[in-house]
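Re: that chain you flagged

S.,

Sorry for the slow reply, it's been a week of failed gels. I finally had a moment to sit down with the sequence you sent. For the record, here it is as I used it:
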Amino acid sequence: MHKSQEDFHSADMDTGLSQSVYLGQEFEKRRDPEHLPPRNFTERAGESIRTIPKFFRSDASAFGFRAAAATMSVGIVCYLEQSQTFFLQNRLLWAMIMVAISMTRTAGQSIFNFVLRVGGTAVAMVGSYIIWYIVVGHVPGVLVFLWIWIFCAFYIVIKMPKLLVVGLLSLVTAVLTVGYELQVKKIGVQASESNGQPAYPMYILAPYRLATVTAGILVAFIWTLFPFPISESSELRKDLGASMYLMGLYYHLAHETIKSTIKDNSGDVRVKGTHAHHLEAARKTVFSKLVFLLNSLGTNSAFSKFQIPIGGQVSTKCELLSPIWHTDRP
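Prediction finished late last night. Pasting the structure tokens below so you have them in one place:
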């Protein structure tokens, strides 16, 4: 293959795989239909500046803006003088943290994760009651039951990966609430309230934790759908198209490798700069992206059933492509 032939780069796919697949120095770079190649230092500097808006209009940047806006919609309460005391006393910091760690890019996955987070916190609230009140707040007994609870939580994390969020949140919530009550017993109520947060007993603190976590998850869910939701179905179609493109590219790379090997003009694959070395590097790059896309396809396919159907029913399996071959003919 010569330099004058068609360049083979992966298109800028809107799937998080925006890096082009460059096949080495023997192939042309992808051409910009709006700009000629830079010819001097000024134009090369301008090309570097153009990468800034390209970064900010990416999907990752848009999701980051959503996450920041969702977090600040709760955090702004702390920055206002009239509501700062309310923020501290009611522990809205927990809600703000949950907003930041609960945001997901697609709607179906967000619904699934939000249900698991609320469920995990509710389970941890019950567990906190058991840990604290079954031994009437005695520290040695509390530590023993807390250890048993941590053991059970890590069992879920290790043996049930699909319920990872439930295990982690039940662990964190139990340690947080029980640890706070142990702190109050150790240093006293007055020292514990020095940060502006009132010291509640366990039967009030645990529901407070559940309420703030639920509020934070609700805010994150609203910002996942606002101003528009991103569905798993649309991401699945994009990933499917990208994977088909990459499979075609991988086939061409394999074909070119076999052809150059038969003609014995590709050089040694272990020597940098040879045709064989560039093809080998390109095949590994394309294959790694294909493996990543397979994981993305499986994830989006699994979470697509959690989408909220608005309008017509959500298309599944091959129904999205049915108009292609199910056409009415006279």
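What I noticed first: Residues 232-263 form the longest helix (32 residues).

Talk soon,
D.
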